[in-house]
Structure formats: structure tokens, C-alpha cells
Automatic annotation (TrEMBL):
InterPro entries: Aldolase_TIM, N/Namide_PRibTrfase, NAPRTase_C, NAPRTase_N, Nic_PRibTrfase-Fam, Nic_PRibTrfase_pncB, Nicotinate_pribotase-like_C. Residues 1-20 are annotated as: Disordered. It catalyses: 5-phospho-alpha-D-ribose 1-diphosphate + nicotinate + ATP + H2O = nicotinate beta-D-ribonucleotide + ADP + phosphate + diphosphate. One of its GO terms (molecular function) is metal ion binding. Pathway: Cofactor biosynthesis; NAD(+) biosynthesis; nicotinate D-ribonucleotide from nicotinate: step 1/1. GO terms for biological process: NAD+ biosynthetic process via the salvage pathway. This is Nicotinate phosphoribosyltransferase. Pfam families: NAPRTase (PF04095), NAPRTase_C (PF17956), NAPRTase_N (PF17767). Transiently phosphorylated on a His residue during the reaction cycle. Phosphorylation strongly increases the affinity for substrates and increases the rate of nicotinate D-ribonucleotide production. Dephosphorylation regenerates the low-affinity form of the enzyme, leading to product release. Catalyzes the first step in the biosynthesis of NAD from nicotinic acid, the ATP-dependent synthesis of beta-nicotinate D-ribonucleotide from nicotinate and 5-phospho-D-ribose 1-phosphate. Helps prevent cellular oxidative stress via its role in NAD biosynthesis. Residues 177-426 form the Nicotinate/nicotinamide phosphoribosyltransferase domain. Residues 1-15 have a biased composition (Basic and acidic residues). It is an enzyme of class 6 (ligase). It comes from Actinidia chinensis var. chinensis (Chinese soft-hair kiwi).
Length: 558
């Protein structure tokens, strides 16, 4: 197909449908359809509306949030079209008094007249600043409220949760997402894997997420595998070729037993253990025969130091004789700080005693109900864990089950709108706005500022007054070293107009890691973090308060 004169090639510009086929125009609340009908009935449906999608409070007691879920929103609107079956269902769900013309109207709807400006996915974001600004015919944009919130709330929450776990674990640790079995259903599981990866996890055990998104897959084995073996006699196929293929060990089981005996009687490890569990030894040996290049053993089924670790070392040393390097162990119960240190000491003893270089650096993975607090406790106690497998607390976002993103009308037919509330933090910021991040001389972001759409943008090296949107006394002058416009055009209305790229997941992850690194450390620390400043221009401040006074009825005291 020919490339269009000034546009991308058609196939390049085509945007895939949402990952989850359940994400359709019907994945919405009934009231969006009743409102759409009422807009249509009032001939208001094509009025041009601007909505902001934002949250009011950072999750997990922190002062930052990682924005995620944008690509799935763009996929939804790029493919937004009702099927006849869907229209028939809406017709059956609305009162019979609804006129037929509405269903013809629905049949014709797509998002070619909708514009979405958004913060790039993976960015660090803050309360009140729009993550998305959605503009279009009010009835259509209204229908997008629920699916957009659904696609962004959990994605951003779990990406933030992952980023927090990464920040405590430290850069050098491997973080594995193990949560599929505990996730809130299939979409929760897939979403958790995808967005934990964006938040800085290294890999997932979720095979379907690996296929869909190219996330690295990792895994060990379970207690069932260990306890399914009864004795070494079960192992029928005992031969193992050396890693370079030059020789074959006909009886790998005997080689393992010989090593276990050597370890047991070596003067350095003497007394640490007596008889190890032989069924566990059989399981480890079998696993090594199946995966000589990827041997990793779960060592806590019977007794970590008296059985699991010595059995593991015997198999690892036998593999070493044949030129293979074992990967390491996994600890899944007990005191993970203590056991990891004990295991590490044992590996060092083996290295010294038998001259196997780097044996002391053997990988130690830990799992079992890990969360921010346990990671923090392990750090404080000192530990020797290289990789953490985290499931339940990560994917269910146990510490906070939802991020409260909302979708509020800020302008209709060029008329700014405000939503008032007794609770000042819930008052919406009116107007179609532009948002900027101002950077200071040390390179850190200093403040986010929202301005009216037609105000001149803040300029580098030029002093600008940044005001708290609601608190009159809170204001500061900023001379930015660098100004970044936050809301970029991700959906200009049609797939062949210029728009921001939807980058691969890996790039979003890199962006997220970079974003977190460039934050001033006190904003992202765990204990008593400093709030990041979110502000409005002086002009917007005045306008908000003018509108507020205009819209709020004056009470009468009797
Ligand atoms: N050194 C440590 N400091 C703080 N918390 C730890 C430490 N080691 C382990 N933990 C945590 O303590 C909890 C122990 O959980 P629990 O008592 O259910 O497990 P367990 O008895 O060790 O193992 P099992 O799964 O066999 O019952 C887990 O959440 C684990 O992450
Ligand atoms: O603890 P999480 O953070 O959710 O991580 C995943 C857990 O899932 C696995 O076992 P499972 O919990 O199914 O069984 P177990 O606790 O008896 O090992 C694994 O051994 C971890 O313990
Ligand atoms: O591979 C593992 O060790 C694993 C995978 C999922 C859950 N728990 C552990
Ligand atoms: Mg468990």
C-alpha cells in the first residue's frame, strides 16, 4: 500500500485493539449510556467537552505515583465502534421509551472527533495534575469515563507498588513477580505482570504475560516437586553428558552421593548436618538431570541447613565436575535474613574447602509473603538474598486496594466548569489546561504547574509565580532550568494525524526507572516523604477563585 503524502503508512498507523477482548465500548457503567441518551435527547450530545483524568492522593502513604495504562486506553479509542449485538443489548437495557434514533446515533459513533493529550506512560505523576485530558463530543467522551478509569487505576497502582518494592530492594536485586495464583482473576494477573515490569520488576513467572508482552520469564520449582520423590532409587536415567559434550557420567546419582559424603566429612562443614533427607536429594538430582544448566533448588521443604543446603551443594558440586554451574537456591519459609546468611556462609565454606571458584556467590532467592515492610526489615537485619519472588502483596496491592483516579468535566463549549465540594481537596480545577514540569538547577523536578490553555508557557530562566491551587498563602517564584510540557498528543482524533508513539513496554520501563532516579530523594523515600509541589499559574488561580465564588450559593442565616 502507498504511503500517504504527509502521514504514516496505513499499517504503521493501525493501533491494535485492547489486550483484553473484554475491553469493549460496553465495559462501562450503565449511567454513561443513560447520560448519553439524555444528552442526545436534549440535542447536547455534540457539545464539545473537556474532561481531566487525575487522582487526588498518592497511594501507599507515599508522595509519588507511576502512571500506567495509557496504551490500553489509546487502543480502546482507536478501535471504538459498537457492534450490532452491542447496540441490541443497550437497546434491551434502556427503557422502552428511548427513541430509535439514539441507536442509529450509537451505530455511527467512533473516536475520530476525540482528542487525548496525556502524560507519557511510565512517568512519575502527582495529585491533581491531569494524567489525561480528553476532549470531544460530550456523549462520546462520557462513555469513555469508566473504561479509562478502569484501565488506568489498577495499572498505575500496581506499577507504583512495584516501584516502591524496587526502591526498597535496591537496584542490584533481581525482582520476580510471582503473583498470578493470587491475583484478582486473569486480567488482574496479566495486568500485574505487565505493570510490575513497568514499575521496575525484572521478570515474571506468568507465561502468558511473557508471550503477550515479551517480559522475561523466570521460575524455580515448588514443594510438590520435592515431596513427590521418595528415594534415589526412583531415578532410572542416571547418565549425564558433560557440558562440553566430551564425556558422559554414567551414574550421576553416585557422583552426587560421593559429593554429599565428602561435604559431610570435610573438616570445615563437619557437625553442621548429619543425615540429609534422601527424597529431597532425589528431587534435586532429578531436577539437575532435567536442567543441568539451570539448576536451582527449593531448599526449605524439610530443613534448610540440615538438609536442603547440603543436598543442593552435593548436586551443584557434581554438576561442577561435569562443567555445569548451578544457579542457586530458593528459601520460602523461616527467617529469611538468618537463613540466607547461613546458606551464604556454607557456600563460602564449600568454595574454600573444595576450591570451586565463585561457589560462594551462589544465587539466593527468597519468597514467602514478602512486602515493603519485610524487605525493609531484611535490609535492616542484613541478608544475603540476591533475588526476591513477590506475589500476593504486590499484585493484590494489599496495602491499598485502589487508586482514586477520577474523570471530571472542566470545560464545555469553551465555558470552564468547576465541581465544588465541602472538602477543598475535592474541588476540581476548571478550564482546558496545559501542564508543565519545572526543573531546578540541580536537575530535579521542582514543581508541576497548570496554566490556562492560552497562557504563554513558562520559559527557561524566566521567573514564574507558582501558586497552590486552593491555599492563598502558599506560593513560590521559580526560575526553571528546564521546562517540560507534560501533556502530549496521543490521540489527535484520527490514526493518520501526527501523534506520540506508543513505545514498547521495555522503553516504558526504562523511562519509569529514569524518572524515579531523577526525583529528589526525599520525595520518594518511604518514611515521611516530602510532598512534591503541584501548582497553578497566577492567572489560573484567580480564575478558579472567581468561578468558585460565582458558582457557590451564598448562604442565608436566620
Ligand atoms: N528476617 C525476617 N524479618 C522480618 N520478616 C521476615 C524475616 N524472615 C521472614 N520474614 C517474613 O515473616 C513471615 C513468616 O511467615 P510465616 O510464619 O507464615 O512463614 P513460615 O512459618 O516461615 O513458613 P511457612 O510458609 O512454612 O508457614 C513472612 O511474611 C516472611 O516474609
Ligand atoms: O508468598 P507470595 O508473595 O504470594 O509469593 C508466591 C508464593 O507462592 C508460592 O507458594 P504458595 O504460597 O502457593 O505455597 P506455600 O506458601 O505453601 O509455599 C511461592 O512459594 C511463594 O511462597
Ligand atoms: O517459580 C517459582 O518459584 C514460583 C512461581 C510462582 C509462585 N511461586 C513461586
Ligand atoms: Mg506462601
Amino acid at each position: 500500500m502507498e504511503a500517504k503524502a504527509n502521514g504514516p503508512k496505513e499499517e504503521e498507523s493501525r493501533i491494535d485493539p485492547p489486550t483484553n477482548p473484554m475491553v469493549t465500548p460496553l465495559l462501562s457503567d450503565l449511567y454513561q449510556f443513560t447520560m448519553a441518551y439524555a444528552y442526545w435527547k436534549a440535542r447536547k450530545h455534540n457539545e464539545r467537552a473537556v474532561f481531566d483524568l487525575y487522582f487526588r492522593k498518592n497511594p501507599f502513604g507515599g508522595e509519588f505515583t507511576v502512571f500506567a495504562g495509557l496504551e490500553e486506553c489509546i487502543r480502546l479509542i482507536a478501535n471504538f465502534k459498537f457492534t450490532e449485538e452491542e447496540i441490541a443489548f443497550i437497546r434491551a437495557s434502556l427503557p422502552e421509551t428511548c427513541e430509535d434514533g439514539f441507536y442509529d446515533y450509537l451505530r455511527g459513533i467512533d473516536c475520530s472527533d476525540v482528542e487525548v493529550y496525556a502524560v507519557p506512560e511510565g512517568y512519575v505523576v502527582f495529585p491533581k495534575v491531569p494524567l489525561l485530558r480528553v476532549e470531544g463530543p460530550i456523549a462520546v467522551v462520557q462513555l469513555l469515563e469508566t473504561p479509562f478509569l478502569n484501565l488506568i487505576n489498577y495499572a498505575s497502582l500496581v506499577a507504583t507498588n512495584a516501584a516502591r518494592h524496587r526502591s526498597i530492594a535496591g537496584k542490584s536485586k533481581l525482582l520476580l513477580e510471582f503473583g498470578l495464583r493470587r491475583a484478582q482473576g486473569p486480567d488482574g494477573g496479566i495486568g500485574a505482570s505487565k505493570y510490575s515490569y513497568i514499575g521496575g520488576f525484572d521478570a515474571t513467572s506468568n507465561v502468558e504475560a511473557g508471550r503477550l508482552f515479551g517480559i522475561p520469564l523466570r521460575g524455580t520449582h515448588s514443594h510438590a516437586f520435592v515431596s513427590s520423590f521418595m528415594s534415589l532409587d526412583e531415578i532410572m536415567e542416571k547418565s549425564l553428558q558433560s557440558s562440553d559434550g566430551s564425556s558422559t557420567c554414567e551414574d550421576f546419582v553416585s557422583l552426587v552421593q560421593a559429593w554429599l559424603s565428602k561435604i559431610k566429612w570435610s573438616h570445615l562443614s563437619h557437625g553442621i548436618f548429619g543425615e540429609t533427607n534422601q527424597s529431597e536429594l532425589a528431587a534435586f538430582t532429578s531436577y539437575a538431570l532435567a536442567f543441568p544448566n539451570n539448576f536451582l533448588a527449593l531448599v526449605d521443604t524439610y530443613d534448610v541447613m540440615r538438609s536442603g543446603v547440603p543436598n543442593f551443594c552435593a548436586v551443584a558440586l557434581a554438576l561442577n565436575d561435569l562443567g555445569y554451574k548451578a544457579v542457586g537456591i530458593r528459601l520460602d519459609s523461616g527467617d529469611l535474613a538468618y537463613l540466607s546468611c547461613e546458606a551464604r556462609k556454607f557456600f563460602h565454606i564449600i568454595e574454600k574447602e573444595f576450591g570451586v571458584s565463585n561457589f560462594g556467590k551462589m544465587g539466593i532467592t527468597a519468597s514467602n509473603d514478602l512486602n515493603e515492610e519485610t524487605l525493609d526489615a531484611l535490609n535492616k537485619q542484613g541478608h544475603e538474598v540476591d533475588a526476591f519472588g513477590i506475589g500476593t502483596n504486590l499484585v493484590t496491592c494489599y496495602a491499598q486496594p485502589a487508586l482514586g483516579c477520577v474523570f471530571k468535566l472542566v470545560e464545555i463549549n469553551n465555558q470552564p466548569r468547576i465541581k465544588l465540594s465541602e472538602d477543598v481537596s475535592k474541588v476540581s480545577i476548571p478550564c482546558k489546561k496545559r501542564c508543565y514540569r519545572l526543573y531546578g538547577k540541580e536537575g530535579y523536578p521542582l514543581v508541576d504547574i497548570m496554566t490556562g490553555e492560552n497562557e504563554p508557557p513558562p520559559k527557561m530562566a524566566e521567573r514564574i509565580l507558582c501558586r497552590h491551587p486552593f491555599n492563598e498563602s502558599k506560593r513560590a517564584y521559580v526560575v526553571p532550568r528546564h521546562v517540560e510540557e507534560l501533556l502530549k498528543c496521543f490521540w489527535p482524533g484520527s490514526p493518520d494525524k501526527a501523534r506520540e508513539e506508543l513505545p514498547p513496554l521495555m522503553q516504558i520501563r526504562d523511562r519509569c526507572i529514569k524518572q524515579l532516579q531523577q526525583m529528589r530523594p526525599d520525595h520518594v523515600r518511604r518514611l515521611n516523604p516530602t510532598p512534591y509541589k503541584v501548582s497553578v499559574s497566577a492567572k489560573l488561580y484567580d480564575f478558579i477563585h472567581f468561578l468558585w465564588l460565582n458558582e457557590a450559593p451564598v448562604g442565608e442565616l436566620q
